[in-house]
Amino acid sequence: MRIGYLLNTYPQSSVTFVRREIHALERLGWQVHRFAMRSDRAALVDPADVAEYDRTELVLQAGAPRLAKAALRLALTRPHGFARALARAWRMGGRSAQGRLRHMIYLAEAAHVAHRTEALGLVHLHAHFGTNSATVAALVQDLGGPGFSFTVHGPEEFDSPQALSLGEKVAASAFAVAISWHGRSQLSRWAAYADWPRIRVIHCGIEPGRFPEPGPMPAEGPLRLVTIGRFAEQKGQLLLPEALAMARARGVDLHLTLVGDGPMRAEIEAAIARHGVADAVTLTGWLDEAGVRRVLADSHALVLPSFAEGLPMVVMEAMAAGRPVIATAIAGNPELVLPGETGWLVPAGDAEALADLFATAAATPAARLAEMGRAGRARVMQRHDIDREAARLARLIEEAMRP
């Protein structure tokens, strides 16, 4: 079966879970054509992402004249479908902060994608994220292209669900996917009750084969913590220097490694200096998947101080690497992190509670940390094997294709 995947920006370092899902579908024998509106080749550091770039069709590279021509052609040859798509784009644009003009651009993008899906013989479109990628997928369907489904991740979609017309997108789709039960509950808030059966839970996943049996915990030196993610307001990294300083004031010996980059890097560096913890912090920048696994192997635990989340891939990766997780008790985190079993949960935004858990982790014997890591590894392998989750997605697509 030939299907299309549609994203706004792909590939990029923060959506490696999409790549893993696509590859898992291809291992099942499916042919997947990648569409993205754009991608930044210069920003890619992982060789696997570079390879994906070469396999991805970038819609905006077609240029404005070609997109406009595709829209005009469909307006003339499929006037009823074009009228439906135009009405949807106008309606959605009226709700959105991006406005109706931007949605006319989405309509032109959809016309181009509809033409390409027909030329490629694609029978279904799956969009990731409930943002403009799902909008374009819905418009492609209106224009006479294949049916569509989409995956909602959060937290961004849940910040502006009405502006994104999430309820309308669920109603128009063959099915909608949430990556956690928390995500499904949030999507259900904006979908009509009659459409709730369309909303299914399929987890993002890891490739178990890439995570061999964990090595031993670091035997000497301070408690080694690592945090991984984009330096953005929702990830809460600004809280870490304060919590680190509090823990050190109590005599806790620890070191923190921050993996990632982003718009808040300067503020994070300033907070590190302000709290006097520069000697206990390492910033690595972005690392590829192999680099992330090396950092996890050199740590005792992952810390994730997020203010908003979906269901973080870094939690899955840390657990697969046999490392306990300190995470905020928000969104999908409690679906993975079991307090006292696979890690610890902390109220979001509470630096003092974070410092308490740093002290708790530092006082926990290495053998117990390793035991918690093994429990986490078993849990994530059972719940987040990407081949198993992709097979569930494939069955939903197959069901959607039945008359």
UniProtKB/TrEMBL annotation:
EC numbers for this chain: 2.4.-.-
Residues making up the signal peptide according to the UniProt record: none
Keyword Transferase among record annotations: yes
Keywords in alphabetical order: Glycosyltransferase, Transferase
GO terms for MF: glycosyltransferase activity
Gene3D superfamilies according to UniProt: Glycogen Phosphorylase B (3.40.50.2000)
Leading EC class: transferase
Protein name: Glycosyltransferase
